[in-house]
Amino acid sequence: MAYSILVVDDSETARAVIARTLEMAPLPIRTMHVASNGAEALRIMHREWIDLLFTDLSMPVMTGVELISRMQEDALLSTIPVVVVSTDGSKTRMDALMSKGVQAYLRKPFTPEQVKETIDALLKGNDHDE
Amino acid sequence: MTNEHRALLNQTFSTVLEQLAFMFVEVSTEASPTVDNAGFVRTRMSFQGPVCGDMELIVPRNMCEELAANIMGTEPDDEAVLRAPFDALKELLNVTCGHVLTALAGQEPVFERSIPTVEQCDPGEWATFRNRDDTLFVLVDEYPVLLYLNYGPRK
Fold first, then answer.
1. Chain A positions in Cβ-Cβ contact with residue B111 (cut-off 8 Å)
2. What angle do CA A22, B11, B3 make, to 5 degrees?
3. What is the Cα–Cα distance from A104 to A85, expressed in whole angstroms?
């Protein structure tokens, strides 16, 4: 199966790193969407099928925390697995995000192996595809 | 900055830079390093938590494309690098700051951090910044780089 992935980060560099890492993983990716903030991500998720979301926390316009909260209020979007990709090392913050529905956390900088393990664990059994 | 914190800053920055950009750090003891006239780029961010402060990174202008290319795994003349040459520098500061705060304060505290900003600075300003007490001077693949950390108790 191939996945449709959304990467949300205000840094073009960070988005490129995640994209490169996903290419190196290697993982079957059908489509990779990108957004530079939470509001843009919501617009994409309302018009495209997304299997998995990677999001930063600190972003202008709409932060990752607000994006996650807005997704939890939506019956459809709340089913999308969320991976937080951040430089934040606070276990307290991560525990709080996990309680809001976040499934995994990748701390920058990360390796392709960590990304692959995370995706495999989250999407195991997901057999939607062409 | 205490010697212990200076060592921690150096170690953290070295590890992050090596993992993120495959670039290597050595501490410089040069009193008057040679700097070119292309100028420097300064990126800064602040943080608030159990301790508050700010962190800055100042690098030669001509290091930015190489840094961005290394992080993105592409060439310095790649379109993505040329479109946002300073974005990688902000990302490097952001990652370094996150790891330094964990090293200083542990995993329990929550810090609010600002989004990094970037501005240019000339060689004269660079010399002034270099002489601050809380500045670490290192060479990154022979580029002169200043890393500044200032923090204190929450007011």
1. 88, 90
2. 160
3. 9
Q: How far apart are CA B69 and CA B113, in angstroms?
A: 26
How far, in whole angstroms, is CA A63 from its chain's centroid? 13
Q: Give the A:B interface size as CB pairs under 8 Å.
A: 69
Q: A42: helix, coil or strand?
A: helix
Q: A23 touching B, CB under 8 A?
A: no
Distance from CA of B69 to the nearest CA of A (A): 9
Q: Which residues of A touch B107 (CB under 8 A)?
A: 89-92
**Residues of A with CB below 8 A from B85's CB?**
none
What pairing do the DSSP bridges indicate for beta strands B112-113 and B117-121?
A: unpaired
Give this prediction's pTM: 0.90
What ipTM is given for this predicted complex? Answer: 0.85
Tell me which of A73 and A22 has the higher pLDDT: A73
